[in-house]
Amino acid sequence: MIFCKATKKNARNIHDLLEEYGANSGQRVSPHKSKLYGGSISSTRLTTLSNTLGFSLGSLPFDYLGVPIFKGKPKNIHLQALADRVKSKLASWKGHSLSMMGRVQLVNSVIHGMLTYSFKVYSWPKGLIKQMDRCIRNFIWSGNVDKKKLVTLSWDKVCTPTSAGGLGLRKLKDMKKAGCLKLCWDLTKSDKQWAITLKSRFFRNSSPINHAISSSIWSSFKNVLHLVRDHSIWKIGNGLSTSFWNDNWLGYKLKDLILEPLPNPISHLVNAKVAEVVHNQVWVLPEIFKQQFPIITCDIHALSLPSTPEPDELVWEDSISGELTFKLAYSCDMQPPQCIGWTKFIWKLFIPPSRSLVAWRIMHNVIATDDNLIKRGLTIVSCCSLCGSSYETVTHLFLRCPFIMQYWNWLSSLLGMPLDLSNFDSLLGICNKGWSPQLHDLIIAAIVNILWKVWKCRNNVRFNDIYPYFSRDLIYVKSLIHQAAHYSKGLNISE
Ligand SMILES: [Zn+2]
After folding, report:
1. The domain containing residue 275 runs over which residues?
2. Are 214 and 89 part of one and the same domain?
3. How far is the CA of 392 from the centre of ligand 1 (A)?
4. How far apart are CA 29 and CA 111, in angstroms?
5. Taking a C-beta distance cutoff of 8 angstroms, is the pair 150, 368 a contact?
6. Are 147 and 74 in the same domain?
7. Which of 193, 302, 358, 379 has the fewest beta carbons closer than 10 A?
8. Do 18 and 138 belong to one domain?
9. What pLDDT score does 101 carry?
10. How far away, in angstroms, is 395 Cα from ligand 1 center?
């Protein structure tokens, strides 16, 4: 892609350059495959330029390397094609044949990748983000982008890290903000030609413009510029790029701390660069400043200057390297996730995620037992499929049912102590009894695998008319625990 000012001379020069390049390299530019796009210029001039170059006229929008190129603020119409591509990708996967955790993995690795690329350029319209979130949410829960599942957890909770009770997914709204922030940061820091050109459009005397412009990038930029300003700090080199008064180079901005006007002899510092108070890489503050602001003077003197002058550098305050990564941008201004105790018991490398997920659904009470279905408006006559003598509730099925009691009794006799079955938290509390690390892992594997197996048995009775046989099933559960022990510490255990 070549950009230039729309003059006949420029068009001729580009034409000659391409001709010369073709003659020397043997790689000729095909006029039939090349197009000319104009900005705000008359159609007569555009036609003249098109004739000079020999390229036909193209019209916006068009796609370039998968990114739609258009003029003005991003609208649904510009990005719908990409949204549809994501939707059809989701629909093409056999969602039903994957476990829910498999679907989470696919969304995290493929779908988020497809969208991040675009989020780093454009600020997507809210409506489109909602539409995409809905498709992803349906796909995760039901395997079908158009089918809503009845018993689900709020999407906000699902989109938190696993340690905070979620599934480690990201909300598109926050990913969009992260993309915009990353672009804003790259633009603010870069001194490459693209950044210089855009900065000349977006800033007047280092302040952002406050009038509307027809730009597809500006909307990404303006909403997060305050975040870049709030979370970055200038590392002083020669002081030439940093504003003494307006920029954060001391951990705060002087304009925020000094509320009265500066006295006359030093009032010019308001418009000065830091270089004004540096001489031969040593701080030289005016006497009147030192007398009036002794604490700030101490802070300034505490900043060491590099022995040889080098350009000032803007660094991201929470970053070790000083650079803003997409991950840091995502968590910027977000409440740190609150860790939930039980999550550390169910998500383990030695337990397949699809089994941990059953425990996760039980802990959140979002498993499709009769009580949860009735709560969400379904009219059914409830009966526990495993004992036939009680209503089916989450508590009954997994803590009280005579069927699961066979498992809990087995585990309890193995450990030589009773299990507290008053609720799920207290059941998992058995893991905290000061066991050796190996035994600790084994108990976790036993509980998670039992919950998973019982849910499977219940579904087999209910939907396939296949009835469980405890002694045979217990052998299977034991083998799963053995497997987990193998992956956990590589131990060979006999029981
Ligand atoms: Zn029962």
Report:
1. 233-315
2. yes
3. 7
4. 35
5. yes
6. yes
7. 379
8. no
9. 92
10. 10
